[in-house]
Specification:
The protein is an alpha/beta fold and about 325 residues long. The protein has 13 helices and ten strands.
Length: about 325
């Protein structure tokens, strides 16, 4: 990286194993400054993911930032099923974490996002949503001026080939397609770190042992996350090298050379019977001039895991 000052980020998440790993990567990387953690219902209910965010923040030493509870359900439709088959009944089953003693900010998540972006210098805050995009859409409607003030939005979600919630749709986008369409339609820069990319970052047994070998409490926590993730993927999908989705978005903010990205128009299907929630990325040719949406295509996997190892070493 050529920048010396840490990149300022707001993590909007629904922890969840991979969201927890994303928080750890951000907290353990001196190149990033976490300004806030906001939560959204997704992998589990809002109460459970908020409790998990508070516990992970405490474990990762994020003591002086706001943690705020966000959207309970999508913008326009009833709450959808949580991903308990992957993340368990608590969202972080099998992971040893301290109790949630940090205070919860009384403001709604969208208001925290707006307040921070309007407070910080223009072009310095990156939004990193790793769950459904409801909070981000609400914030953009609550205070439209944030769109021109945000540096960029780097989200984990979507796919330009096949989905996981349905054959066409990825879980985060399928959870609230209308919110996703708002986010992709705004004039800020949006980079979609989708399944096509994140399935390249697989936590093999060798990777998991490398994490465990660091030998500090943070590495033990991340190892437990990856082991539980692997076990649940083994049952659900028949393989035990789970893709670590959400940290890929954080890694891109930390080091943009880690991912290969391409400009492409992206829209979200909000009406299709079979394609509801599909992210339609037009990769047929060069993007039109002024295109502000980007698709992540490839990741340097070895360097990605080096970042994860260094983060837990730093936290330890």
């Amino acid at each position: 990286m050529t920048e010396t000052a840490p990149r300022k980020i707001i993590l909007d998440c629904d922890p969840g194993y991979d969201d927890a790993a994303a928080i750890m990567l951000a907290a353990g990387s001196p190149g990033l400054e976490v300004l806030a953690i906001t939560t959204v219902a997704g992998n589990q209910t809002i109460g459970k993911v908020t409790n998990n965010a508070l516990r992970i923040a405490r474990m990762a030493g994020l003591k002086d930032i706001p943690v705020a509870r966000g959207a309970v359900r999508p913008l326009l439709r009833p709450a959808v099923a949580v991903a308990s088959q992957i993340h368990g009944e608590t969202g972080l089953d099998g992971v040893d974490l301290p109790e949630a003693t940090l205070p919860l900010d009384p403001r709604p998540a969208a208001q925290v996002i707006v307040d921070i972006i309007m407070r910080e210098p223009e072009g310095t805050v990156t939004l990193v949503p790793t769950g459904p995009l409801t909070n981000i859409a609400i914030a953009a409607r609550l205070e439209p001026r944030i769109v021109s003030r945000v540096r960029e939005v780097v989200l984990m979600g979507g796919a330009w080939r096949e989905g996981n919630a349905t054959p066409c749709a990825e879980f985060n986008i399928e959870n609230d397609p209308e919110a996703a369409q708002i986010v992709f339609s705004e004039s800020w820069k949006v980079t979609m770190v989708g399944l096509d990319l994140t399935y390249q970052a697989r936590a093999s047994e060798e990777v998991r042992e490398r994490i465990r070998a660091v030998g500090n409490p943070s590495s033990k926590c991340l190892w437990q996350i990856l082991e539980m993730f692997a076990e649940n993927y083994r049952v659900w999908r028949g393989f035990d090298s789970p893709p670590l989705h959400d940290p890929c978005a954080v890694a891109y903010v930390l080091d943009p050379t880690l991912l290969e990205v391409r400009a492409a128009p992206i829209s979200v299907e909000t009406h299709g019977t079979l394609t509801y929630g599909m992210t339609v990325a037009d990769l047929r040719g060069p993007a039109p001039e002024g295109c502000n949406t980007f698709v992540a295509l490839r990741i340097d996997v070895d360097r990605f895991w080096d970042l994860m190892v260094r983060a837990v070493e730093h936290l330890g």
